[in-house]
Amino acid sequence: QVQLVESGGGLVQPGGSLRLSCAASGSVGSTYAMGWYRQAPGKQRELVAGFTSTGGGSTNYADSVKGRFTISRDNARNTVYLQMNRLKPEDTAAYYCYLHTYYGGDYWGQGTQVTVSS
Question: Which range, of 29-33, 83-87, 96-100, averages the lowest pLDDT?
Answer without folding.
Answer: 29-33
